[in-house]
Amino acid sequence: MAIESILDAARAGMQYERLRLDASSRNIAAANVPVAAGHGATRLSVGAPGLNGAGGGFAAAVSEQPTGLREVNDPAHPMADKDGMVHYPATDMVGEMTTLMTASRGYEANVRSFNLLRGMMLRALEIGAK
């Protein structure tokens, strides 16, 4: 296995974990944004990474999936319906926080492996220069 392919795998892992972090952060941020009447709520989801057919690299797809709504009784809110209910996306905060933690740790592991391999390559160059 070529060293460049190992570095590419670490880079792809960092990109994938960053996508997971971004999607989960967006879902948490949107949890307290009211949804207009008649509109559905969505959440971002990152698919499993796979091989990109064109370039041979790694790719992961971000998709919007419909999610349920939670209702809060707030008749004074400008987006309240005729019954005084305001609709918000039903976000699973525990699940999203778990995704944030696992994605962050996965990103850290990929950074660590990338830096370790880079340090080994630099050390090999130093040994070869002697």
Provide a descriptive summary of the structure in words.
By secondary structure, the protein is of the alpha+beta class. 49% of the residues lie in helices and 20% in strands. The protein has two helices and six strands; from the N terminus they run H-E-E-E-E-E-E-H. Strand 2 (50-51) and strand 3 form a beta hairpin. The longest helix is centred in the last third of the chain and has 37 residues, at 93-129. The model has no long low-confidence stretch (mean pLDDT 88).
Order of helices and strands: HEEEEEEH
Q: In which order are the strands of the major sheet placed?
A: 1-4
Count of DSSP H/I helices: 2
- Uncertain segments are none
**Largest sheet, described in full?**
2 strands, antiparallel
Number of strands: 6
Shape: elongated
Helix content: 40-55%
Radius of gyration: 22 Å
What is shown here, in short?
The chain is α+β, with helices and mostly antiparallel strands and 130 residues long.
Task: List its traits.
two-stranded antiparallel ribbon, 20% strand, alpha+beta, 2 helices, elongated, 130 residues
Question: What does the secondary structure layout of this molecule look like, with pairings?
Answer:
Layout (H helix, E strand, L loop, with lengths): L2 H27 L11 E6 L3 E2 L6 E2 L2 E6 L1 E5 L11 E5 L3 H37 L1
Antiparallel strand pairs: 1-4, 2-3, 5-6
Helix pairs in contact: 1-2
